[in-house]
C-alpha cells in the first residue's frame, strides 16, 4: 500500500525534535488566514550553516501554521555580508547560488516540504526575486523547485521587463507568479501602483498580485479599495505598518497602514486571502518576540 506524503509526515513526527511538533493553533481566526513571511526571521543565526532549523523553530514558537518561505533560507549562506554588495565577493556568491539552483536535486525540496508538513506549517508561497541576472535554465529550475515544495504561488519582487520571460514558464509549469510591490512609484519598471500591477494581470492569468499593504499605503494608495476590486487576482497579503508619504516602517498600530480595516474586510467578505506578517520595523525584542506582537495585533483586529 502506498503512503501519502501527509501520512509519511505524521509518521515521522515522533522522531523529530520538539520544535517540529505540530503547531496547535489553526491558521484561521474568524475566517481570516493569518501567518508569517519567514523573511521576518532573516536575522536569526544559522545552526552549523543551516537556516531551515531555526526558521522552523521560530514558526513553531509563533504558532504559525501558514507561511511564505524566503528562498535564501534554503540557499547557501551569504558569506559576503559586511563586504561590498557590488564587487567580486557579491558576484562570487551570486554564481554560487546559481550553481546551487542548477544542481540541487528536487528530492531536496521535497524533503524540505516534508519537514514543514511534520511541523504543521503550509508553504503557501515561495519567495524568488527574479531579475535579469537569472539565466533561462536557472529560471526553469526555480519553477521546478517551487513545485517540489508544493507552494501555491511564487512571490516575486521583480520588474515589468521580466514578465515576458516568466510568462511561458508560469504557463508551462502551471505555477502562479505573484508580483510584489514596493512604494517607489518613480520607476515604471517597478511594481508599486494599481496601474503597474495591471501590466502583469493583463499579460497572463498566471500572473497575480502579492499585495504588501504597508508599501501600497506608503505609496499613496488605498489597500482596502484595491483588495475589494481585485480580490480574485490577489494571492496573499504582506502585513506591515508604514507611515504615509513613503515613510518608515513602524510597529503595528503606530503607522498609517489600515491593517485593521484590511483584516475586517477579509473577515466580512470571506476572501480566502492569507494575511502574512512581514516584520521589518526596528523592534526592541527578538524577531520571534516581535512577530508574536504582530500576530497578536492582527488577531485582536479580527
Structure description:
The protein is α/β, with parallel strands linked by helices. The chain has one domain: Divalent-metal-dependent TIM barrel enzymes (TIM Barrel). It is built from eleven helices and eleven strands. Strands 2-3-4-5-6-7-8-11 form an eight-stranded parallel β-barrel, surrounded by six helices. The chain has a two-stranded antiparallel ribbon with strand order 9-10. The relative contact order is 0.13.
What key phrases describe this protein's structure?
302 residues; alpha/beta; TIM Barrel; two-stranded antiparallel ribbon; 40% helix; 16% strand; disordered N terminus
| Largest sheet composition | 8 strands, parallel, barrel
Strand order of the largest sheet: 2-3-4-5-6-7-8-11
Broad shape = globular
The CATH superfamily name is: Divalent-metal-dependent TIM barrel enzymes
> What is the N-to-C order of secondary-structure elements (H for helix, E for strand)?
HEEHEHHEHEHEHEHHEEEHEH
User: Low-confidence segments, ≥5 residues, pLDDT <50?
Assistant: 1-25
Number of domains: 1
Kindly state the number of beta strands.
11
Distance between the termini: 44 Å
CATH architecture, by name, is: Alpha-Beta Barrel
Amino acid at each position: 500500500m502506498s503512503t501519502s506524503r501527509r501520512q509519511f509526515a505524521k509518521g515521522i513526527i515522533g522522531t523529530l525534535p520538539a520544535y517540529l511538533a505540530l503547531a496547535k493553533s489553526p491558521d484561521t481566526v474568524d475566517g481570516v488566514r493569518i501567518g508569517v513571511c519567514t523573511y521576518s526571521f532573516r536575522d536569526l543565526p544559522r545552526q552549523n550553516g543551516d537556516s531551515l532549523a531555526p526558521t522552523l523553530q521560530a514558526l513553531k514558537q509563533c504558532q504559525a501554521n501558514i507561511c511564505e518561505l524566503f528562498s535564501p533560507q534554503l540557499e547557501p549562506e551569504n558569506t559576503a555580508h559586511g563586504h561590498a554588495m557590488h564587487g567580486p565577493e557579491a558576484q562570487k556568491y551570486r554564481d554560487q547560488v546559481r550553481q546551487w539552483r542548477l544542481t540541487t536535486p528536487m528530492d531536496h525540496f521535497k524533503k524540505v516540504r516534508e519537514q514543514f508538513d511534520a511541523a504543521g506549517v503550509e508553504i503557501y508561497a515561495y519567495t524568488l526575486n527574479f531579475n535579469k541576472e537569472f539565466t533561462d535554465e536557472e529560471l526553469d529550475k526555480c519553477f521546478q523547485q517551487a513545485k517540489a515544495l508544493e507552494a501555491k504561488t511564487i512571490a516575486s519582487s521583480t520588474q515589468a521587463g521580466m514578465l515576458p520571460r516568466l510568462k511561458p514558464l508560469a504557463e508551462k509549469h502551471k505555477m502562479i507568479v505573484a508580483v510584489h510591490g514596493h512604494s517607489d512609484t518613480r520607476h515604471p519598471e517597478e511594481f508599486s501602483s494599481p496601474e503597474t500591477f495591471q501590466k502583469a494581470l493583463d499579460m497572463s492569468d498566471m500572473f497575480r498580485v502579492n499585495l504588501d499593504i504597508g508599501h501600497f499605503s506608503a505609496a499613496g494608495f488605498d489597500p482596502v479599495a484595491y483588495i475589494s476590486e481585485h480580490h480574485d487576482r490577489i494571492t496573499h497579503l504582506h502585513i506591515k505598518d508604514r507611515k504615509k508619504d513613503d515613510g518608515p516602517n513602524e510597529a503595528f498600530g503606530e503607522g498609517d497602514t489600515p491593517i485593521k480595516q484590511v483584516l475586517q474586510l477579509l473577515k466580512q467578505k470571506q476572501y480566502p486571502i492569507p494575511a502574512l506578517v512581514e516584520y521589518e520595523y526596528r523592534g526592541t525584542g527578538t524577531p520571534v518576540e516581535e512577530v508574536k506582537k504582530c500576530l497578536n495585533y492582527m488577531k485582536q483586529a479580527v
